[in-house]
Design goal:
Rossmann fold
Amino acid sequence: MVMENVRNRTRREFLRKAAALAGAAALAGAPVGAAESAPDLVVVGGEDPAAMVRKAVAALGGMGRFVARGDVVVIKPNMAWARRPEQAANTNPDLVRALVELALDAGAAKVKVFDRGAAETKDYRQAYADSGIAEAARQAGALVPLTYDLAAADLAIKDGKFLKDVSVYKDALECDCFINVPIAKNHGMTQVTLAMKNHMGVIAGERREWHRDINQALVDFACAFRPKLNVIDAYRILVRGGPSGGNLQNVRVCGKCIAGASQASVDAYAATLFERNPAEVAHIALAGKAGLGEIELSKLTIREFAS
């Protein structure tokens, strides 16, 4: 289940994280076991999205920190829009391909890649094809189901202030490792759409209700549904016209990949790419208050690299 209770980790998860800490320390040249060797966030710059994400995951301790042998892994990109990669409405397909390969190399038994299409997308198959993600993921060895064909299950939102329960695709709920992989875009309702907003693509039920209090809804859901790894594709970002995009004049090549375990922290960093103060983006501020992660960047250990 993706709803991981830290106080009830299994022995396997404890050992996996201990090994990951050693890997991160070795990469940084620090003594094994040094707490400061495990960064909160990794930011990699470059011109090759696949190389960037590989370096980002390695700097976090390697994919073995998140994926154990025999795991079923779900990788959830943005691929809701019938747009080409250069239009920056969907996650970069080369980055998704690299994550699938890393998960399989770590011993995953199965990797699934899927997203629910936007309301404007009448046929999700078109979005899957135009994004380039479906083909890239399949070539890397992943299954790419249409969400039309997925079963749903109810998820109770304990202590939710707006959401009390929600229907979610069972594949997302029942996997061993959920990897959240949005592209960084602006958004008319929430200012930006990043890791927490990307969760709306696993909602099987009606989503319009969320719009009555979208910022609180995003945080309520994020409190109950916690990915093990969040990777924000900021190779290209959509600075205007989001989330659907389409106009190349609204795309800026940023050349970054941001990765971390905390969805609130990765969102806080990515918000600055849009010249936003994270504390002034409503759902990011609420996430910080809800304990979803540190959003004050000066308090985070952030490692930045070139690929």
